Amino acid sequence: MRSTTAVTIGVGATAAVVLGALVQAAGNDPVGTALSMAVPAEYKTLIEEAGNTCPEVSPNLLAALLTQESGFNPKAKSPVGAQGIAQFMPSTWETHGIDGNGDGKRDVWDPEDAIPSSAKYLCTIAEDVKGVPGDKQNNMLAAYNAGSVAVQKYGGVPPYKETQNYVRSITALANSGSGGGRTATTDQVATAINAAKQMIGTPYSWGGGNANGPSTGTCCSPNGRSGKSTTGFDCSGLTLYAYAKAGIALPRTAAAQYAASEPIKPGQMKPGDLVFYGSNATSIHHVGIYVGSGWMIDAPRPGTQVRYSPLDTMRDLFAVGRPTSNTNKEI
């Protein structure tokens, strides 16, 4: 639907984010009949029932989508006018909204209507794009975000950064973690922070860095800077490397790392937590490792080096997440 409600937070030494739900998905395949993600209790039955509307939709996938769209906030309204827990645009709701609870009204603000409407709409667009090449689930999610016409036009997920991040993030939410996922231990956190400290002074390289350390990057950053001739790290390459040294596998991109981390409540931020920057969950563009007292270690941007930076070095601090010991798919 090309919209996600941003969570607004203060920027400063103790900045954190209020997230609507603790997301811990189970299993390697989001397509299934059981809900294994943690969701608000009042929506569990609705999601379990609506998540089996058609074979292309599962309860976990639907829960991940609702987390991404609104954080389970039934009063959410985006800057572009999307409404409710499933973030329907008014025109889309007019066409696809249903009276899910049978009370005679189709109310976009009522989760009992909006959640089953979201599942039904997913099934409708899955049918619309069933002939498009590529991963059917990715195409369905892309169509939910950008519209079926765009997916058909481009023969798959459109080349829109927002839509591509949207698909990655929801897939990671639905796939990441398992029932036994554990957050990083004190020893793992210390190992990760020490690994990042040892890289201070390493050049920034767009697309650079992996579990083994600095590497040459790719082309090109939003400003056209290439990492092909620079050995170093970009922001998510640094965090991936640091936690790999601690035995925790993170996804490659900042958005996917956010989706695969355990959300942290205000006042619970600790050294080792990942801090994410962006206007919403689908536009996360930066990640760093919190080290305490309002500082992080990060690889800021082309032309800089790995360094200590204050948390308010950027004004769009969006969320804080705690890495888990699950081995997550890289997407």
Topology (elements, then pairings):
Blueprint: H1 41-50, H2 59-70, H3 90-96, H4 111-128, H5 136-146, H6 148-154, H7 161-175, H8 186-198, E1 215-216, E2 231-232, H9 235-245, H10 254-259, E3 262-263, E4 274-277, E5 286-292, E6 295-298, E7 307-310, E8 317-322
Antiparallel strand pairs: 1-2, 3-8, 4-5, 4-8, 5-6, 6-7
Helix pairs in contact: 1-2, 1-4, 2-7, 4-5, 5-6, 5-7, 8-9
Polypeptide structure, described:
The chain is of the alpha+beta class. Helices cover 33% and strands 9% of the residues. It contains ten helices and eight strands. The strands form two sheets. The protein has a six-stranded antiparallel sheet with strand order 3-8-4-5-6-7. A two-stranded antiparallel sheet has the order 1-2. Helix 2 (59-70) crosses helix 7, helix 5 packs across helix 7 and helix 8 (186-198) packs across helix 9 (235-245). The model is unreliable at 2-33 and 326-331 (pLDDT under 50).
